[in-house]
């Protein structure tokens, strides 16, 4: 009985020097769970965790399901709400104070919206592949081979992948849902947060209940692609997202200047409406250090949006949107992030394998060193010639 209930009082990082925080859930869940309860060192593989999919939580439902196996045995029998409370406290302890406050505020903000907003199309809030995606996309994902993905993909410029993804009916429903949400925002006089500093017009989908659905979309449909085409920027470990809608129109264009996204991988799909202009232009992938350097001719690429057709690119791929010359265009954007990649990047040396300018600099250094070696050899043989003549 006591054999496998070893507790893990602290995670001191052992020899790896990365994790230094302690895991000490020193709060009280209820009277039956003592404050000294700690996580187990090894997961209980026989325990079948509960599903947390239906809850609006500040960490992905799968994180709770995974963590549940590490709960102290006495906690398996407490209610799901108590488990959530216990695990959430532990997870929050890993976040720095500022981040914890931000997560808390975001949760309250979302809760406030979700508890008052009446969705128009409930079917959008649970991922249903057959109604969301075109058959070719579903098949490529379910075959899940590099070849099946390459078959539906075109790469018109290095690092820019495009493919047919969303059903017209799904695009229409999402457009109507966003419109419905905007109307509700106006009527309720609620001040909502816009997706980012660049877009005054747009809504964060995660804020009004679509977070869990978009998480599933990232887990099941974006990550498998990113794993194949973007392994160098954490494509296989994408674990959080920011999903939003941006609206462009002749009356609404702001500064759509050139930028990089706060993401490892960005998915951009036009949902439609009638429009002309508004091309998405790309100018090569750059690291922080090289973000303002010039573009090579082969990095210059313009993409014309087609409703339902997705564009997938690295967040560090510099891009912008040209003015929409007529009509109105609405795009769905999902910025996918990898916490592992971000952590690893802190320890990374100068060179980024995915930065066009880093690659160019490296090739230039190699070229110079080859040239130097050649010229040394050349002078050596000239001297040797001279020696022999003398
Ligand atoms: Zn660079």
From TrEMBL:
Keywords: Dioxygenase, Iron, Metal-binding, Oxidoreductase, Vitamin C. Residues 239-338 form the Fe2OG dioxygenase domain. PROSITE patterns: FE2OG_OXY (PS51471). GO terms for molecular function: dioxygenase activity; iron ion binding; L-ascorbic acid binding; oxidoreductase activity, acting on paired donors, with incorporation or reduction of molecular oxygen. The keyword Transmembrane does not apply. Residues 1-23 are annotated as: Disordered. PANTHER family: 2-OXOGLUTARATE AND IRON-DEPENDENT OXYGENASE DOMAIN-CONTAINING PROTEIN 2. This is Fe2OG dioxygenase domain-containing protein.
């Amino acid at each position: 009985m006591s054999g496998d209930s070893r507790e893990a009082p602290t995670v001191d990082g052992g020899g790896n020097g990365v994790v230094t925080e302690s895991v000490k859930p020193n709060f009280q869940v209820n009277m039956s769970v003592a404050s000294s309860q700690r996580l187990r060192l090894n997961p209980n593989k026989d325990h079948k965790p509960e599903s947390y999919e239906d809850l609006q939580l500040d960490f992905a439902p799968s994180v709770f399901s995974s963590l549940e196996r590490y709960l102290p045995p006495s906690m398996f029998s407490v209610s799901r709400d108590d488990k959530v409370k216990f695990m959430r406290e532990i997870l929050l302890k890993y976040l720095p104070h500022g981040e914890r406050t931000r997560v808390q505020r975001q949760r309250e903000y979302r809760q406030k919206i979700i508890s008052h907003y009446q969705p128009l199309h409930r079917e959008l809030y649970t991922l249903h592949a057959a109604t969301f995606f075109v058959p070719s996309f579903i098949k490529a994902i379910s075959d899940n081979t590099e070849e099946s993905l390459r078959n539906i993909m075109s790469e018109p410029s290095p690092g820019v992948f495009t493919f047919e993804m969303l059903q017209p009916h799904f695009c229409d429903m999402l457009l109507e849902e966003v419109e419905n949400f905007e109307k509700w925002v106006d009527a309720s006089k609620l001040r909502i947060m816009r997706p980012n500093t660049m877009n005054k017009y747009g809504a964060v989908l995660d804020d009004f209940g679509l977070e869990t659905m978009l998480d599933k979309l990232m887990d099941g449909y974006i990550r498998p692609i990113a794993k194949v085409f973007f392994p160098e920027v954490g494509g296989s470990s994408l674990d959080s997202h920011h999903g939003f809608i941006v609206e462009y129109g002749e009356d609404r264009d702001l500064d759509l200047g050139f930028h990089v996204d706060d993401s490892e991988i960005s998915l951009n799909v036009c949902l439609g409406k009638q429009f002309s202009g508004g091309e998405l232009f790309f100018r090569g992938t750059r690291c922080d250090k090289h973000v303002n350097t010039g573009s090579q001719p082969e990095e210059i690429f313009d993409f014309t949006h087609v409703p339902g057709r997705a564009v997938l690119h690295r967040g560090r791929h510099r891009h912008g949107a040209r003015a929409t010359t007529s009509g109105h265009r609405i795009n769905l954007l999902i910025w996918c992030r990898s916490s592992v990649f971000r952590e690893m990047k802190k320890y990374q040396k100068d060179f980024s394998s995915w930065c066009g300018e880093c690659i160019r600099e490296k090739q230039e250094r190699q070229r110079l060193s080859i040239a130097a070696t050649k010229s040394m050899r050349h002078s050596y043989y000239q001297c040797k010639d001279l020696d022999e003549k003398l």
